Protein backbone atom coordinates (compact mmCIF):
# COMPACT_ATOMS: atom_id res chain seq x y z
CA UNK A 1 0.00 0.00 0.00
CA UNK A 2 0.90 3.65 -0.28
CA UNK A 3 1.36 4.63 3.38
CA UNK A 4 1.91 8.08 4.86
CA UNK A 5 3.75 8.09 8.20
CA UNK A 6 3.62 11.34 10.16
CA UNK A 7 6.15 12.17 12.85
CA UNK A 8 8.60 10.21 10.72
CA UNK A 9 11.71 11.71 12.33
CA UNK A 10 10.61 10.80 15.87
CA UNK A 11 11.51 7.70 17.84
CA UNK A 12 8.35 5.82 16.85
CA UNK A 13 8.04 7.25 13.36
CA UNK A 14 11.55 6.26 12.27
CA UNK A 15 11.01 2.65 13.32
CA UNK A 16 7.57 2.57 11.68
CA UNK A 17 8.88 3.92 8.36
CA UNK A 18 11.61 1.27 8.29
CA UNK A 19 9.30 -1.60 9.24
CA UNK A 20 6.61 -0.62 6.74
CA UNK A 21 9.15 -0.25 3.93
CA UNK A 22 10.65 -3.64 4.77
CA UNK A 23 7.13 -5.11 4.66
CA UNK A 24 6.88 -3.97 1.04
CA UNK A 25 4.80 -0.81 1.39
CA UNK A 26 5.47 2.43 -0.48
CA UNK A 27 6.11 4.89 2.34
CA UNK A 28 6.00 8.67 2.40
CA UNK A 29 7.69 9.99 5.54
CA UNK A 30 6.26 13.26 6.88
CA UNK A 31 7.59 15.50 9.64
CA UNK A 32 7.82 19.17 10.58
CA UNK A 33 11.64 19.15 10.41
CA UNK A 34 13.35 20.56 7.33
CA UNK A 35 14.48 18.13 4.64
CA UNK A 36 18.16 17.73 3.82
CA UNK A 37 18.84 18.51 0.17
CA UNK A 38 21.12 15.61 -0.68
CA UNK A 39 20.89 12.71 -3.09
CA UNK A 40 18.85 10.02 -1.30
CA UNK A 41 20.20 6.58 -0.55
CA UNK A 42 18.65 3.89 -2.78
CA UNK A 43 15.37 2.68 -1.32
CA UNK A 44 14.98 5.66 1.02
CA UNK A 45 11.30 6.55 1.47
CA UNK A 46 10.14 9.85 0.04
CA UNK A 47 10.19 12.64 2.62
CA UNK A 48 7.80 15.58 2.79
CA UNK A 49 7.93 18.42 5.31
CA UNK A 50 4.57 19.53 6.70
CA UNK A 51 3.06 21.40 9.63
CA UNK A 52 0.02 19.23 10.28
CA UNK A 53 -1.84 21.75 12.43
CA UNK A 54 -2.37 23.48 9.08
CA UNK A 55 -5.25 21.71 7.33
CA UNK A 56 -3.99 22.48 3.84
CA UNK A 57 -0.63 20.84 4.51
CA UNK A 58 -2.35 17.81 6.08
CA UNK A 59 -4.47 17.37 2.95
CA UNK A 60 -1.44 17.82 0.71
CA UNK A 61 0.54 14.98 2.29
CA UNK A 62 -2.49 12.66 2.33
CA UNK A 63 -3.34 12.87 -1.37
CA UNK A 64 -2.89 9.46 -3.00
CA UNK A 65 -2.43 7.56 0.27
CA UNK A 66 -4.19 4.27 0.95
CA UNK A 67 -3.22 4.22 4.64
CA UNK A 68 -2.04 6.75 7.23
CA UNK A 69 0.04 6.09 10.32
CA UNK A 70 -0.27 9.18 12.49
CA UNK A 71 2.62 9.29 14.97
CA UNK A 72 3.27 13.06 14.96
CA UNK A 73 2.81 14.72 18.35
CA UNK A 74 4.47 16.64 21.13
CA UNK A 75 5.38 13.54 23.17
CA UNK A 76 4.50 14.63 26.72
CA UNK A 77 2.89 17.54 28.60
CA UNK A 78 5.91 18.63 30.62
CA UNK A 79 8.13 20.57 28.21
CA UNK A 80 5.63 22.89 26.50
CA UNK A 81 2.84 25.16 27.74
CA UNK A 82 -0.41 23.19 28.16
CA UNK A 83 -2.28 25.01 25.39
CA UNK A 84 0.56 24.32 22.96
CA UNK A 85 0.52 20.58 23.70
CA UNK A 86 -3.26 20.34 23.43
CA UNK A 87 -3.64 22.48 20.31
CA UNK A 88 -0.77 20.84 18.44
CA UNK A 89 -1.69 17.25 19.19
CA UNK A 90 -5.43 17.51 18.79
CA UNK A 91 -5.49 19.68 15.67
CA UNK A 92 -2.85 17.61 13.89
CA UNK A 93 -4.93 14.49 14.56
CA UNK A 94 -8.15 16.21 13.51
CA UNK A 95 -6.62 17.48 10.27
CA UNK A 96 -5.12 14.11 9.35
CA UNK A 97 -8.25 12.04 9.98
CA UNK A 98 -10.39 14.68 8.26
CA UNK A 99 -8.12 14.59 5.23
CA UNK A 100 -8.13 10.78 5.25
CA UNK A 101 -11.94 10.63 5.29
CA UNK A 102 -12.38 13.28 2.59
CA UNK A 103 -9.69 11.77 0.32
CA UNK A 104 -10.90 8.18 0.59
CA UNK A 105 -8.07 6.67 2.63
CA UNK A 106 -9.12 3.18 3.69
CA UNK A 107 -7.01 2.66 6.84
CA UNK A 108 -5.83 4.95 9.62
CA UNK A 109 -3.48 3.97 12.46
CA UNK A 110 -3.63 6.50 15.26
CA UNK A 111 -0.72 6.42 17.72
CA UNK A 112 -2.48 7.17 20.99
CA UNK A 113 -0.94 6.70 24.44
CA UNK A 114 -0.93 4.63 27.62
CA UNK A 115 -1.61 7.94 29.39
CA UNK A 116 -5.24 8.10 28.24
CA UNK A 117 -6.70 6.70 31.51
CA UNK A 118 -5.21 9.75 33.24
CA UNK A 119 -2.97 8.47 36.04
CA UNK A 120 0.38 9.39 34.41
CA UNK A 121 0.48 13.22 34.64
CA UNK A 122 -2.41 14.18 36.95
CA UNK A 123 -2.39 17.34 39.06
CA UNK A 124 -4.45 15.41 41.61
CA UNK A 125 -2.69 12.02 41.59
CA UNK A 126 -4.60 8.76 41.62
CA UNK A 127 -3.85 5.09 40.97
CA UNK A 128 -5.28 2.69 38.42
CA UNK A 129 -8.40 0.84 39.57
CA UNK A 130 -6.81 -2.51 38.77
CA UNK A 131 -3.77 -4.13 37.21
CA UNK A 132 -2.80 -5.24 34.72
CA UNK A 133 -4.53 -2.29 33.07
CA UNK A 134 -6.49 -3.10 29.91
CA UNK A 135 -8.65 -1.33 27.33
CA UNK A 136 -11.72 -1.49 29.60
CA UNK A 137 -10.15 0.65 32.33
CA UNK A 138 -12.09 3.89 33.05
CA UNK A 139 -10.81 7.05 31.34
CA UNK A 140 -10.15 10.05 33.63
CA UNK A 141 -7.48 12.29 32.02
CA UNK A 142 -6.55 15.65 33.54
CA UNK A 143 -3.49 16.81 31.61
CA UNK A 144 -3.45 18.29 28.06
CA UNK A 145 -1.48 15.40 26.55
CA UNK A 146 -3.77 12.61 27.75
CA UNK A 147 -6.85 14.71 26.97
CA UNK A 148 -5.71 15.31 23.39
CA UNK A 149 -4.96 11.60 22.93
CA UNK A 150 -8.37 10.67 24.37
CA UNK A 151 -10.13 13.11 22.05
CA UNK A 152 -8.04 11.73 19.18
CA UNK A 153 -9.51 8.29 19.84
CA UNK A 154 -12.97 9.86 19.79
CA UNK A 155 -12.15 11.41 16.41
CA UNK A 156 -11.51 7.86 15.16
CA UNK A 157 -14.91 6.79 16.48
CA UNK A 158 -16.54 9.68 14.61
CA UNK A 159 -14.66 8.88 11.39
CA UNK A 160 -15.89 5.29 11.18
CA UNK A 161 -19.46 6.43 11.85
CA UNK A 162 -19.46 8.69 8.80
CA UNK A 163 -17.28 6.79 6.33
CA UNK A 164 -15.94 3.37 5.36
CA UNK A 165 -12.48 4.03 6.84
CA UNK A 166 -11.03 1.47 9.27
CA UNK A 167 -9.22 2.92 12.29
CA UNK A 168 -6.94 1.42 14.91
CA UNK A 169 -5.61 3.36 17.90
CA UNK A 170 -2.47 1.97 19.51
CA UNK A 171 -1.62 2.94 23.09
CA UNK A 172 2.10 2.22 23.45
CA UNK A 173 3.70 1.93 26.83
CA UNK A 174 6.99 3.77 27.56
CA UNK A 175 8.92 3.35 24.31
CA UNK A 176 12.53 2.16 24.56
CA UNK A 177 15.31 1.64 22.04
CA UNK A 178 18.87 0.41 22.34
CA UNK A 179 20.15 3.90 23.21
CA UNK A 180 17.96 4.60 26.24
CA UNK A 181 17.23 1.31 28.03
CA UNK A 182 19.83 1.83 30.74
CA UNK A 183 18.90 5.44 31.43
CA UNK A 184 15.15 4.82 31.50
CA UNK A 185 14.65 1.29 32.78
CA UNK A 186 17.87 0.72 34.74
CA UNK A 187 16.43 2.32 37.92
CA UNK A 188 13.30 0.12 37.73
CA UNK A 189 15.41 -3.01 37.29
CA UNK A 190 17.53 -2.15 40.34
CA UNK A 191 14.77 -0.85 42.62
CA UNK A 192 11.23 -2.22 42.56
CA UNK A 193 9.92 0.96 44.21
CA UNK A 194 10.72 2.82 40.95
CA UNK A 195 7.50 1.48 39.47
CA UNK A 196 6.37 4.55 37.58
CA UNK A 197 2.73 5.19 36.67
CA UNK A 198 2.90 2.36 34.13
CA UNK A 199 3.69 -0.22 36.84
CA UNK A 200 7.03 -1.31 35.34
CA UNK A 201 5.60 -1.54 31.79
CA UNK A 202 7.56 -0.64 28.65
CA UNK A 203 7.72 -1.46 24.93
CA UNK A 204 10.65 -1.89 22.58
CA UNK A 205 10.30 0.49 19.63
CA UNK A 206 10.89 -2.30 17.11
CA UNK A 207 8.14 -4.45 18.64
CA UNK A 208 5.91 -1.39 18.47
CA UNK A 209 6.84 -0.96 14.80
CA UNK A 210 5.79 -4.56 14.19
CA UNK A 211 2.42 -3.77 15.79
CA UNK A 212 2.08 -0.70 13.55
CA UNK A 213 2.63 -2.85 10.45
CA UNK A 214 0.00 -5.33 11.62
CA UNK A 215 -2.43 -2.50 12.36
CA UNK A 216 -1.81 -0.93 8.95
CA UNK A 217 -2.47 -4.23 7.20
CA UNK A 218 -5.41 -5.23 9.42
CA UNK A 219 -8.89 -5.59 7.99
CA UNK A 220 -10.64 -5.20 11.35
CA UNK A 221 -13.80 -3.12 10.85
CA UNK A 222 -14.67 0.06 12.71
CA UNK A 223 -12.32 1.47 15.32
CA UNK A 224 -10.37 -0.71 17.75
CA UNK A 225 -8.08 0.41 20.58
CA UNK A 226 -5.07 -1.67 21.63
CA UNK A 227 -2.50 -1.35 24.38
CA UNK A 228 1.00 -2.22 23.20
CA UNK A 229 3.46 -3.24 25.93
CA UNK A 230 6.03 -5.96 26.45
CA UNK A 231 4.59 -9.02 28.22
CA UNK A 232 7.22 -8.84 30.98
CA UNK A 233 7.90 -6.00 33.39
CA UNK A 234 11.14 -4.03 33.62
CA UNK A 235 13.25 -5.92 36.12
CA UNK A 236 11.44 -9.23 35.84
CA UNK A 237 9.84 -8.65 39.25
CA UNK A 238 7.19 -10.96 40.65
CA UNK A 239 4.35 -8.62 39.72
CA UNK A 240 1.91 -9.62 42.45
CA UNK A 241 4.54 -9.27 45.17
CA UNK A 242 5.87 -5.99 43.75
CA UNK A 243 2.39 -4.48 43.48
CA UNK A 244 1.63 -5.35 47.12
CA UNK A 245 5.00 -4.06 48.28
CA UNK A 246 4.74 -0.70 46.54
CA UNK A 247 0.97 -0.04 46.58
CA UNK A 248 -0.43 -2.34 49.27
CA UNK A 249 -4.04 -3.24 48.52
CA UNK A 250 -4.87 0.07 46.82
CA UNK A 251 -4.84 -1.49 43.33
CA UNK A 252 -6.95 -4.56 42.60
CA UNK A 253 -4.78 -7.40 41.28
CA UNK A 254 -6.36 -9.26 38.37
CA UNK A 255 -5.22 -12.60 36.88
CA UNK A 256 -1.71 -12.54 35.41
CA UNK A 257 -0.52 -14.19 32.20
CA UNK A 258 2.88 -14.84 33.84
CA UNK A 259 4.52 -14.15 37.24
CA UNK A 260 6.68 -11.32 35.85
CA UNK A 261 3.80 -9.76 33.92
CA UNK A 262 3.68 -6.18 32.74
CA UNK A 263 1.43 -3.63 34.44
CA UNK A 264 -0.42 -3.36 31.13
CA UNK A 265 -2.26 -6.24 29.48
CA UNK A 266 -1.88 -6.69 25.72
CA UNK A 267 -4.14 -9.73 25.47
CA UNK A 268 -6.42 -7.91 23.04
CA UNK A 269 -3.54 -7.09 20.66
CA UNK A 270 -2.36 -10.70 20.79
CA UNK A 271 -5.87 -11.95 20.07
CA UNK A 272 -7.10 -9.56 17.36
CA UNK A 273 -3.89 -8.33 15.72
CA UNK A 274 -1.83 -11.48 16.11
CA UNK A 275 0.94 -9.34 17.61
CA UNK A 276 3.76 -11.24 19.32
CA UNK A 277 6.65 -9.11 20.68
CA UNK A 278 10.15 -10.53 20.24
CA UNK A 279 12.31 -8.28 22.44
CA UNK A 280 12.84 -7.74 26.16
CA UNK A 281 14.79 -5.42 28.44
CA UNK A 282 16.96 -8.49 29.11
CA UNK A 283 18.35 -8.18 25.56
CA UNK A 284 19.89 -4.83 26.53
CA UNK A 285 20.42 -4.84 30.31
CA UNK A 286 21.86 -7.25 32.86
CA UNK A 287 20.10 -8.15 36.10
CA UNK A 288 21.57 -5.03 37.74
CA UNK A 289 20.08 -2.74 35.12
CA UNK A 290 23.37 -1.96 33.38
CA UNK A 291 23.88 -2.09 29.63
CA UNK A 292 25.11 -5.36 28.19
CA UNK A 293 28.10 -5.27 25.87
CA UNK A 294 26.85 -5.43 22.31
From TrEMBL:
<dbReference type="InterPro" id="IPR050177">
    <property type="entry name" value="Lipid_A_modif_metabolic_enz"/>
</dbReference>
<feature type="domain" description="NAD-dependent epimerase/dehydratase">
    <location>
        <begin position="3"/>
        <end position="219"/>
    </location>
</feature>
<dbReference type="Pfam" id="PF01370">
    <property type="entry name" value="Epimerase"/>
</dbReference>
<dbReference type="InterPro" id="IPR001509">
    <property type="entry name" value="Epimerase_deHydtase"/>
</dbReference>
<dbReference type="InterPro" id="IPR036291">
    <property type="entry name" value="NAD(P)-bd_dom_sf"/>
</dbReference>
<protein>
    <submittedName>
        <fullName>NAD(P)-dependent oxidoreductase</fullName>
    </submittedName>
</protein>
Amino acid sequence: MRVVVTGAHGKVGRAAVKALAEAGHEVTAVDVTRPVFERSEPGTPRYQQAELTDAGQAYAVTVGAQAVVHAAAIPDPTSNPPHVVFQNNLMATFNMIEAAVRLGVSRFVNISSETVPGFFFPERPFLPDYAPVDEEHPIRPQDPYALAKHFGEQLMDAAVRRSDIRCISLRPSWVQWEGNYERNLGPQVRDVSESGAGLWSYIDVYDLADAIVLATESRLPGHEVFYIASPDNAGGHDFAEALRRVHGDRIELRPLARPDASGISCAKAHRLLGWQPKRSWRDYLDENGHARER
